[in-house]
Design goal:
Shape: elongated
Order of helices and strands: HHHHHHHEEEEEEEE
Number of helices: 7
Distance between the termini: 37 Å
Strand order of the largest sheet: 4-1-6-7
Radius of gyration: 36 Å
Strand content: 15-25%
């Protein structure tokens, strides 16, 4: 169902008339009837339309956030907040005096040079005597065969098995908790929009992409392209997800 159909259906199930909703929300009846027909032009703009959707939803007893998310998805997206960095960035950069740190690299290079020089002196000073003693001790003893050098050639790798590319994306859901769900396919084409009840099983396919808006995080268990990915967003409210033919990606 669309946003307007959902508002009208839930209002009727709550036993309320358009006049009663108008009195409780202080929204004109003509505006409410337009909203139930998916005409939000009389709301005075997207900002006021979101406020009217929330007000009417609360009066008829449903969660407004899934409907607001659906409105944003079909009317250019939610307004982007100004970041704290851009809001508080000074117009002129503030110059800070750089504090010079000690040159540890030069000190370490000097210490390393001293160690190398000391090692060379020790080898030159003791090398002759050691070589003569070693020659006398092993005189007449046949030299041991040299150990074979390890091969440096890289090990052969077996050719990887390349899986055939998928020709479509598939989404299957098992409803664990009654919630509102909106599913869209390629280029935003609507596949489903409305309430799913606990115990329902649904399946949708698209050629390249499926986008999902879930009213209650953790309300449904999802299987994407044959792989069970569990219940996304448990306990975190509205969830907006998107899947392609290669999802879920391999770890």
């Amino acid at each position: 169902m669309s946003i307007g159909e959902t508002l009208a259906t839930e209002r009727q199930q709550a036993g309320l008339s358009v006049t009663q909703v108008s009195l409780q929300t202080r929204i004109r009846e003509t505006v409410i009837r337009g909203m139930e027909s998916d005409d939000f032009s009389t709301c005075g703009g997207n900002f006021y339309a979101r406020g009217h959707i929330r007000s009417v939803s609360r009066v008829i007893g449903i969660d407004p956030e899934p409907l607001v998310a659906e409105f944003d998805a079909t009317h250019g997206g939610a307004p982007q907040p100004v970041s704290a960095v851009s809001a508080f960035e000074p117009e002129q950069p503030v110059a800070f005096r750089e504090r010079r740190s000690p040159n540890w690299s030069a000190a370490m290079a000097l210490a390393l040079a001293l160690v190398v020089i000391y090692g060379i002196v020790q080898v030159v000073g003791n090398g002759g005597g050691s070589e003569r003693r070693t020659a006398q001790q092993v005189a007449g003893t046949p030299a041991a065969p040299a150990a074979p050098r390890p091969s440096t050639a890289p090990p052969k790798r077996s050719d990887p098995v390349v899986a055939a590319p998928r020709k479509h994306v598939e989404l299957a859901v098992q409803v664990r908790r009654t919630t509102w769900v909106s599913v869209r396919g390629d280029k935003g084409a609507p596949l489903f929009s409305g309430m799913l009840r606990k115990g329902d099983h649904k399946r949708w396919t698209a050629k390249k992409k499926i986008s999902v808006v879930i009213g209650v995080g953790g309300g449904i268990r999802m299987t994407v392209n044959g792989k069970d990915i569990g219940s996304p967003g448990k306990g975190r409210g509205v969830q907006q997800l998107s899947f392609g033919r290669d999802d879920p990606k391999a770890a």
